[in-house]
Amino acid sequence: MVSRFDRLDALRGLAIVWMAGFHLAFDLNHLGLLEPAQNFYRDPLWTVQRACIVSLFLFCAGLSLACALEAGQAWPRFWRRWAQVAGCAVLVSLGSALMFPGSWISFGVLHAIAAMLLLARLAATWLPRPSAMGPVRVLTLLALAGVAWALPQLVQHPVFDNRLLNPLGLVTAKPRTEDYVPLLPWLAPLLVGWAAGGVLLARAPQALAGGVPRAMRPLAGLGRWSLSFYMLHQPVFIGVLMAGRSFGAW
């Protein structure tokens, strides 16, 4: 088994770059520096992009889960990585509460990844390693992904319209928050990534682990440090933009 999945890292790096561009545009708009002003909450130009970025991140998380399971990742190592993600999710909540006290993030993308990885890792204890899952189990994962995607469209109830239960996703209206990635429907792309990882590891492992062109190596390097970049890029963007505005640069 290879120790590094360069192509998977590059795909994750691509998601990071796309996300950073989206957040930079959001920050410019929030500070009144984007003309014309944009509606990031309703305009399909931005809402569709957000959905694609989140889907790509979660798909990569599913692929990474498959690779980790294939490599026989032990529980202690899983818990160390999980604690990093969960700890960063807490920091995101605290930071957003300072900047957006009326719409702070209680269950955003990092909260979702932490919860989903824990659920998936527990479920994996009853499954063979990804490359040995076979067609039936792969199709089962895809079927569960379909159910996860469809269920919020079919079931909503006011009892879920609070911060304690809205992480499930069965709300009647989207909560007022800057980032909301509930388990349903967003568990779907992670399950698809897990299933795709199993198929690729069994049939074409080089699709994930093969070398990347020189021009894509920076993306692969960025993908290996995705969590660190995720936590640092917004404070840097906002700090630079606010400093520039204070000094009359724009």
Would you summarize the structure shown here?
With 250 residues, this protein is mainly α. It is 67% helix and 0% strand.
Helix and strand arrangement:
Blueprint (H helix, E strand, L loop, with lengths): L5 H25 L13 H27 L4 H25 L9 H16 L9 H21 L28 H21 L2 H4 L7 H8 L1 H21 L4
Helix pairs in contact: 1-2, 1-8, 1-9, 2-4, 2-6, 3-4, 4-6, 5-6
Q: Your description of this structure?
A:
This protein is an all-alpha fold and 250 residues long. The chain has one domain (6-246). The protein has helices at 6-30, 44-70, 75-99, 109-124, 134-154, 183-203, 206-209, 217-224, 226-246. Helix 1 crosses helix 8, helix 1 packs parallel to helix 9 and helix 5 runs antiparallel to helix 6. The longest helix is centred in the first third of the chain and has 27 residues, at 44-70. 30% of the residues are buried.
Q: What is the residue-mean pLDDT, rounded to a whole number?
A: 94
User: What percentage of amino acids are in beta strands?
Assistant: under 5%
Terminus-to-terminus distance: 51 Å
Kindly name the structural category.
mainly alpha
* Elements, N to C (H/E): HHHHHHHHH
Percentage of residues in helical conformation:
55-70%
What is the count of DSSP helices, taking H or I runs of 4+ residues?
Answer: 9
Count of individual domains: 1
Salient structural properties:
0% strand; 250 residues; mainly alpha; single chain
